[in-house]
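Bug #2210: token dump truncated for DUF2997 domain-containing protein?
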Amino acid sequence: MKIEEIEVTIDPQGRVLVHVRGVKGEACLSLTAALEEALGGKIIQREMTAEAHETPASGVQEVDRVEVGNTKK
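Reproduced locally. Full output below:
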């Protein structure tokens, strides 16, 4: 059984980092879309892993890290 994970970390400055594992292809973006919107909807940075560029068997993509939040201070 393949395990898919979403890890959410909030750093001391309040930035939210989302790391998705076990997912390949574009479905990762839709997998995290509601979470990203709930966290403010503003993507500050998106990093793709090498696995994200592999040919997906299931049509999903892995995103190494997504940082979302409000840049207002």
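Output looks complete on our side. Residues 5-68 form one domain. Marking as cannot-reproduce; reopen if the truncation happens again.
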